Amino acid sequence: MATPRFDPKISLGHILTALSMMGAVFIAWGVMTEKLAHVKEAQSAQQARTEKVEDRTGKLEADSATLKANISAINDGIQDLRQDLRLSRGTAAR
Q: Which residue has the higher pLDDT, 87 or 54?
């Protein structure tokens, strides 16, 4: 078996290989830069959607608190009516 030896000549194959490698690197760089731009655009769109959802959630929480207060007031009114009814029945029965 022959031992490997270094040949200092530069052939057309060496040049084509080097050019192909550089071209592949430039193409990969361009593709990654384009993908990065798309990711940044999608990220900003997602951020806008997230802010809208957070606003809606805040409004729903405020509405929920208002509804709880209204329901509590209605329950208090019902309790007052029941108590008045019991008092009036007790007075009418005597």
A: 54
Four-CA torsion 47, 51, 52, 53, nearest 10 degrees? 100
SS3 of the chain: helix, strand, coil, percent, to 5: 85, 0, 15
For residue 7, CA distances in Å to 1, 2, 14, 19, 21 come to 18, 14, 12, 20, 21
- Distance in angstroms (rounded) separating the CA atoms of residues 74 and 94: 31
Q: What pLDDT sits at residue 94?
A: 53
Distance CA 82, CA 94 (A): 19
- Domain residue ranges in the chain: 38-94
